[in-house]
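User: What would this chain look like folded?
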Amino acid sequence: MKREYDFSKARRGPVVPPIPGKTRITIRLDNDIIEHFQDAVDRAGGGNYQTLINDALREYHQGRRLEAVVRKAVRDEVKASRVAPIRTA
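Assistant: Here's the prediction, encoded as C-alpha cells.
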C-alpha cells in the first residue's frame, strides 16, 4: 500500500453511467420478498432478481390501470341501462 495517493486527476461521480430511463433508489423490502425473487431467478437458471421485482411492479401497475378502465366502462353501461327505457316486443 502506498503511503500517499495522487487524486489530482480523480473525478467524482458514478463508476458506471446510469441507464437512460432508470433511476437508482434505495428501498427496504422484507427478506421473504427478496428471497422469493432470488429463488425465482435461480429456478430460471439466472438473471437479475431486481428485474423480476420491476416486472412484477409493472404488471401490477398496468393491471390496476386496466381494472380502472373496465370498472368505468361497466359503470357507464349500468348507468346507461338505467336511463334508457326498456322496450318489449
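Residues 37 and 43 are 10 Å apart (CA to CA). If you want, I can go into more detail on any region.
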